Amino acid sequence: MCYKGKEKLLSEIVRELKVDAVVESSVLHVADQVRITAQLVLVSPEEYLWAENFNDRIENILSLQNDVAVAITNAVTQKITEGSTRKKYSVKAINAEVYYAYLKGGFFWNKRTAEGYQKTIHYVNQAIKLDPACALAYAGLADCYNLVVILALCAEAYALAGDAIRAQEILHQLRQLTQQRYLSPYWEALVHLALGDRETAFKSLALAVQYHSVTLVWLNVDPKFNAIRLNLDFRSCCTRWDGKALRIILIQ
Questions:
Q1: Which whole-number Å values give the CA distances from 176 to 112, 134, 153, 170, 181, in the listed order?
Q2: Which of 46, 101, 118, 158 could cross-link to 167 by cystine, CB 3.0-4.6 Å?
Q3: What are the structural domain ranges in the chain?
Q4: Quick one: which of 41, 69, 42 has its CA closest to 54?
């Protein structure tokens, strides 16, 4: 996906990925029919090792994807004979409307924005309403709930890389998202610490202690806090959390 929309020569992509061959594919969708065209290309010397078209109705998209995967695997391993072909697994048909809703959710999830996050939840919930047994939709919903943590880790990474502006932009997105979804202040503390703002980091940790955040189980061992481990404010947070954790254990 990192090469999607980029104008790069096949030889450049192969060199960057350190592979000898690649699979190229395209998808054509007309009405309720889907065609997937896939081909295996050896780069040096350039040679088309295998190519095939796959056609089916949209409700059989999962089975169609399985057919493509099996065919590519067989082509790569050069086991095309009847005795060596891989087993074709049966995959149940999926409601086209459910799959469309799931795909729309995935599209907006990849935007990694507060607005996209809300639209993703809308579409995957729509898919679940249409088909309560759709595992793909539940997986998409789980990704949504985990997105706030992913964004926090991205903000921390940008801050550590010296890009404070991008880190602050992501923090702003997080504040929007956390108006509707919970994010432990523990993660925000890591971002502020990476930005060099210890005072705000300590405030976030204090909130995490106040909210009984389960992520605090890592507080005493997380190496990211090593630089401030001897700080009195940090030690105070650790002491307060240790006391709360002990009381929780005793109650249970």
A1: 12, 29, 16, 10, 9
A2: 158
A3: 10-77, 202-252
A4: 69
The pLDDT profile of the chain, 252 residues, written as one tens digit per residue, is: 566 666 777 777 777 877 777 778 888 888 888 888 888 877 777 777 778 888 888 877 778 888 888 887 777 766 434 444 445 555 566 788 888 888 888 888 777 676 777 788 899 999 999 988 888 888 888 877 777 788 888 889 999 999 999 999 888 888 877 777 778 888 899 999 999 999 999 888 888 888 888 788 888 888 888 888 888 888 888 787 665 544 433 343
CB 159 within 8 A of CB 197: no
d(CA 147, CA 167): 16
CA angle 100, 102, 105 (to 5 degrees): 110
Of the candidates 3, 6, 62, 12, the residue with the CA atom closest to the CA atom of residue 34: 62
Burial 78-89 (b: 16+ CB within 10 A, else e): eeeeeeeeeeee
Residue type, 201: A
Tokens encoding 146: 């985990």
